[in-house]
Amino acid sequence: MKINDTARIYRLQAYQNAERAREEKGAAAAGSQRDGVTISPLALEMSRGEDPAVRAERLEAVKESIQNGTYQVDLQKVAEKLYESFMR
């Protein structure tokens, strides 16, 4: 009677080695992929459309009016912009 069937052990080891090789190959392929960011044409246009000094001045005026409690939201404009964004 044979207790240790070495042929089965070798087949198992060959299978495990093949699995490890496949996993390492997959990890190497995943490591070579890169994340990326794309900026839409609309975002590029918006970023170039205004002088930074003018924007900073306008932003400061808005901050002051919020702190003073005098900032008013134009609900009509908000509704129009929401409608435009949903209809695209």
From TrEMBL:
One of its GO terms (biological process) is bacterial-type flagellum organization. InterPro entries: Anti-sigma-28_factor_FlgM_sf (IPR035890), FlgM (IPR007412), FlgM_C (IPR031316). Keywords: Bacterial flagellum biogenesis, Cell projection, Cilium, Flagellum, Repressor, Transcription, Transcription regulation. Residues 35-83 form the Anti-sigma-28 factor FlgM C-terminal domain. Belongs to the FlgM family. This is Negative regulator of flagellin synthesis. It comes from Tumebacillus avium.
